[in-house]
Amino acid sequence: MKVYTAESGYIYHYYYLGRQEEEYRFEISADRRTWSVHTVELDAAGTRRFTANERYGLAKLSLFAAFDGAESPQGLGVRIRPRAEQIADYIYRLGL
């Protein structure tokens, strides 16, 4: 289990469950009692080829941005779809 403190102050606990093609699945909880599965879809990553580790890094940064953008855990969408400009920012931040 990993932990992330969002800008809202909520503390999220999450597990990486795996991936299917361009979808990365995480099980997430903000109270460690109730858990739900959320999917990060990297369709906006474009045609550039990334290694598996690079794609996981993009998915994880997308997950963190969703945590930071949600006012509360209830506001976190089940499907997280980063926009192309967000992906471009993550590529820059990761030095890819």
Report a brief summary of the structure:
The protein contains 2 helices and 5 strands; from the N terminus they run ββββαβα. By secondary structure, the chain is of the alpha+beta class.
Question: Main traits of this protein?
Answer:
2 helices, globular, 30% helix, 96 residues, alpha+beta, five-stranded mixed beta sheet
What does this structure look like?
By secondary structure, this protein is an alpha+beta fold. It has one domain (2-94). 30% of the residues lie in helices and 30% in strands. The chain is built from two helices and five strands. Strands 1-2-3-4-5 form a five-stranded mixed beta sheet, with helices on one face. Strand 4 (36-41), helix 1 (52-69) and strand 5 (79-80) form a beta-alpha-beta unit. Helix 1 (52-69) crosses helix 2. The chain is globular and about 40 Å long. The N and C termini lie far apart (27 Å).
